[in-house]
Amino acid sequence: MYKTGETHLLGVLVTSATKHTLAAYCDNGATLKATTVLAMLYWLGVTPSYSRPRVCNDNAYIESLFRTAKYRPKFPARGFADLEEARAWVVSFVQWCNEMHRHRAIQYVAPALRHEGGDHAILAARHALYTTARALHPARWSGNTRNWTPIGAVALNPERDAVGTAQVARTAIDQPAAA
Fold this sequence. Notes:
Layout: H1 6-18, E1 23-25, H2 35-43, E2 47-49, H3 59-70, H4 83-99, H5 111-116, H6 119-136, H7 158-174
């Protein structure tokens, strides 16, 4: 019987994606740093990692994934019967997360809808609805309505990306054009 939990769930995600290695992307909680848990992971051939390879500061994304998975009503409280059941659950979870779940960070639209560009029409309709409601009942509003502006690019490391873009631009300016 496979145990449910953060380590195993994400280990299954990684195994499903790569089918080569088993790694557990863990949070920095005491439970996942405990000697007995680490010993068990090594005994099972699982490499513990506290962030993704070559990305040192994205644990917030992993933690968000864990929380979404753990508090999903269909999360199996008693675990999975076997690896195939665990993989099937992960596939359905990822589909739900991308197609149906409305993510707060992208203005409560599903990622697939945002990727297709459908978020603009929905966010404009929400803005119109809120503006109308505020105009009809101004006493109910103490401030402005919610900001329904579409979110631009999302990056794991926006500061690093901005520095890299600036360096590329400077290099292009400094180098003479080829004749």
